[in-house]
Amino acid sequence: MEQATPRPGAGPAGTGVLAASMRVFDLSLGRMLWSRRTIFTALVAGLPVVVALVLRTLLAFEVPVMQGGVTGPVVFGLMFWGFVVRFAIPVLAVFYGTALIADEVEDRTITYLFTRPIPRASVVLGKYLAYLVCATSVLLPAVVLTWLLLAPIDGALAASFPDLVVDLVIVVVGFVAYGALFAAVGTIFDRPLLFGLLFVFGWENLALALPGQLRRASVAHYLQGLVPHAMPADTPLDVLQRAMTGAPGVLECALGLGLVTVAGLLIAARVVSNREYVLEH
Amino acid sequence: MAPNTRRFLFGSALVVAAGLCTGLVAYYSGVLPSRQVVRGELAFIPADVAAVAYADVRQIMDSEFRQRLRSALPAAGSEKDRMLEATGIDIERDIDAVVAGLQGDGTPGGIAILRGRFDRSRIEAAALQHGAVEEQYGGYAMLVGRPHTFDDGTSSHRLAPSVAFLGDGLLGLGDADELRRAIDVSVSGESLSAAPDMMRLIDDVSGTGDAWFVARVARMTRQPGLPEQVQNQLAGVEWLAASANIDRSVRGRVRAEARDDRSAEDLRAVVNGAVAAARLFAGQDQRVTAALNSLQASGSGRQVELAFELPPSLLELLEARAAAAMSPGPAAGH
Predict the structure, then answer these.
(1) Across the strands, what pairs with B165?
(2) How far apart are CA A141 and CA A138, in angstroms?
(3) CA R_g for chain B
(4) Contact A68 B296 (CB under 8 A)
(5) Among all residues of chain B, which has the CA nearest to that of A146?
């Protein structure tokens, strides 16, 4: 037996997209925050905090773990670059972004949303805003706690504070861009999670490693261009840094990430507005 | 919004806000005041100096590295006593920070502006004991020492070591004429703030370490006695800036700005060659190897950078050598 959602449309006149989005945001935030997905998010976000705690404990027992010029701010920079930017942000965005609409379809609850007298685009926008609040509210405190634990080790909070502010902005900007991209992916593909993971771990790594302009077709290229931390020399990460020698300027990064965000949200809103969802029992 | 959700978001925002506030307080009470304080001292440094240096004496004196260096090289303590006897200033207790301006161009001298808590009567007693005379210049009290003739091998110079009380907690040391000029430039505005190139580099390095140094290389290399080979190597370098953080170890960064890309490439090749040669001849000592491994040369365009770390283990080597030098040799005559 098949149940068709109401005919696609922009919703009744008089209901503003923004006001409707806020209603959807309000409804979705709680569901999103107290889902099993958030447990995974908390585990991912908590990992650098645990590593920082272990480091502090080892140092408290005078175990020589920081040698060869490695300081707390350097370790924080490495963790931010290697873990937060390259792993946590894209992975969390994939898990949340691709599920914005897909979960409603899978749970067969999308019918209830679409029967409401609101524009369909507001469903996408409201859920996207809920994802942003949910993801940033978990990852931002983790980054701050990691910084508070690591930066004072052979360093100073004062000196590394400007970089922390940039890091926090990067986390938000990363979630904004990746989330919009995967929101679009979630509305277009039948298996969006698989596509998203392939994009993050396959395409992005390949595009960044290959010479030429291919890297411009990845979000990581623009996001990494904003990272303020330097990489130590003579390590595999130095190779990564050298590969990033042609890093884009701030303006190019902002334009690239802005384009991905706007395009992603527009595509997602358009697909959801025009698509007829057929829910199979 | 459910109460649980609201509580979670509030908790999350609280952690972020607490972290940012902590950082903000640390930033404004750490980096910015030190920059503002340094600007106060820089007002007495003439715009045409060849080099400027700064040291957070309090931080350096309290550092673990300095404590260990002192035990490794006990002779360093006698310098402190000599300074106390000659000027009435206790380096370890009286001085918080020092900014020095060097003349270059083969001209000896320069001035040092000291910030700290000074016992004026003790300083005056020490200076007068050494034949200094009191003088008022530009509204500041000075103690002008007896002139000495100084011969650097190429020409002779006449210097009068003097002290100037430049305000609350600020003391100037140097040649009497240099100190009078420092007072003049602080009034006329022809101090370092009128040298934008120098200030650009000072702004870059100030606040990044406990000690820093910025120099116009061309004027520094005209110093008599500098080996010709060094002068040739530095001919293509326009600016030199260095900063160091001194705590358990000494972590530093030296940055050179070459005249053009070609000179920078040559300098990079020299630096890389020197680092490679040092590693080659370092021997088997793990402590020296660790210090050499911390050397990281980098830079692009006209910039050449070298980062380094002198680990505490290097001091163990120094201690061992100092102990070997101090110990009596094998008994003779048996």
Answers:
(1) B141, B171
(2) 6
(3) 24
(4) no
(5) B19
A141 with B9: Cβ contact below 8 A: no
By C-alpha distance, which of A168, A84, A166, A181 is closest to A131? Answer: A181
State residue B105's pLDDT score: 65
For A4, B21, B22, B144, B309, the CA distances from B254, given in Å and listed in that order, are 70, 32, 30, 37, 11
In chain A, whose CA is at the least distance from the CA of B1? Answer: A26
pLDDT, one tens digit per residue, over A171-184 is 999 999 999 999 99
Using only C-alpha atoms, chain A has a radius of gyration, in whole angstroms, of 21
Whether the pLDDT of residue A84 is over 80: the answer is: yes
pLDDT the model gives residue A238:
47
- Among residues A73, A90, A227, A169, which one has the least CA distance to residue B16? A169
How does DSSP assign B227-258, residue by residue? Answer: -HHHHHHTTTEEEEEEEEEESSSEEEEEEEEE
What is the domain count for chain A? 1
A28: nearest CA partner in chain B: B1
- Nearest by CB to B8, from A33, A147, A245: name it: A33
pLDDT at residue A9, rounded to an integer = 47
Please state whether the predicted TM-score (pTM) of the whole model is above 0.80: no
Decide: B254 and B306 in contact? Cβ < 8 Å: yes
Q: How far apart are CA A201 and CA B27, in angstroms?
A: 37
DSSP string for residues in B199-229: HHHHHHHTTSSSEEEEEEHHHHTTSTT--HH
- pLDDT confidence of residue A281: 56
**CB neighbours of residue B55 within 10 Å:** 21
Listed residue (A210, A232, A231) closest to A221, CA to CA: A210
DSSP percent split of chain B into helix, strand, coil, nearest 5 = 50, 30, 25
C-beta atoms of A133 and B9 within 8 A: yes
DSSP run (H or E) holding B318? helix B312-326
**Cα torsion through B277, B278, B283, B286, rounded to 10:** -140
Q: What angle do CA B61, B316, B97 make, to 5 degrees?
A: 15
CB A149 within 8 A of CB A60: no
Specify whether the backbone of A173 is left (phi greater than 0), alpha (psi in -120 to 50) or beta: alpha
> With the CA atoms of B177, B179, B182 and B188 taken in that order, what torsion angle do they form, in degrees rounded to the nearest 10?
-60
Domain that holds residue A179: 2-280
Q: How many CB atoms lie within 10 A of CB A105?
A: 19
Number of neighbours of residue B225 by Cβ within 10 angstroms? 8
CB contact under 8 A, B207 and A159: yes
> Which residues in chain B show pLDDT less than 50?
331-334
CB atoms within 10 A of CB B64: 13
Candidates B202, B138, B125; CA nearest to B164 is B138
Distance from CA of B225 to the nearest CA of A (A): 34
pLDDT at A4: 45
A144-156 per-position pLDDT tens digit: 999 999 888 866 7
B311 and B246 Cβ atoms separated by less than 8 Å: no
Q: Are strands B303-310 and B140-144 parallel, antiparallel or unpaired?
A: unpaired
Q: Give me the total of CB pairs closer than 8 Å, taking one residue from chain A and one from chain B.
A: 88
* Count of Cβ atoms closer than 10 Å to residue A241 Cβ: 18
